[in-house]
Design brief:
alpha+beta, 4 helices, 8 strands, about 25% helix
Length: about 140
């Protein structure tokens, strides 16, 4: 096992689509985890979520978040990112990001449809600024 370089973990995050797990803490202290589609904006992780979701409520109350992406192909790898989330409603970039993320996961031919579906009122744009990154590869070596 080895620690990934910045280039290695960025490749893992972007080379092919993977679902990212988003972990938050509920008001009563219970953990909450949910899968999201995401994209990178430099070092910032960007995703959308409904304004009425558990993760949105959690992040409004406590902006601390943990994210996880793994590679299920031997010899296996994972990235755990701790960070701070910023949520914005009515963000002028929401539709652009929803389209970009939709295109990444569903293909360029469906990008506009997903942008139209997910870039609407009631959706929030979430930007996570990493504070700590743990990236390991070669787990089974």
């Amino acid at each position: 096992m080895h620690t990934m370089t910045t280039d290695e973990y960025r490749r893992l995050l972007t080379a092919r689509v993977r679902t990212m797990q988003v972990a938050t803490v509920r008001a009563d202290g219970r953990p909450h985890i949910a899968p999201v589609w995401f994209e990178l904006d430099g070092e910032t992780i960007v995703f959308t979520t409904g304004a009425d979701t558990v993760k949105a409520a959690d992040l409004r109350r406590d902006a601390r978040v943990s994210l996880c992406v793994d590679d299920e192909t031997p010899p296996f790898a994972y990235i755990v990112i701790e960070g701070t989330a910023t949520l914005t409603a009515n963000d002028p970039d929401l539709r652009r990001w929803a389209t970009r993320i939709g295109g990444r996961y569903m293909g360029a031919d469906q990008a506009e449809a997903y942008g139209k579906r997910n870039g609407v009122e009631g959706e929030l744009l979430v930007r996570v600024t990493p504070t700590k990154i743990l990236a390991r590869a070669g787990i089974a070596e």
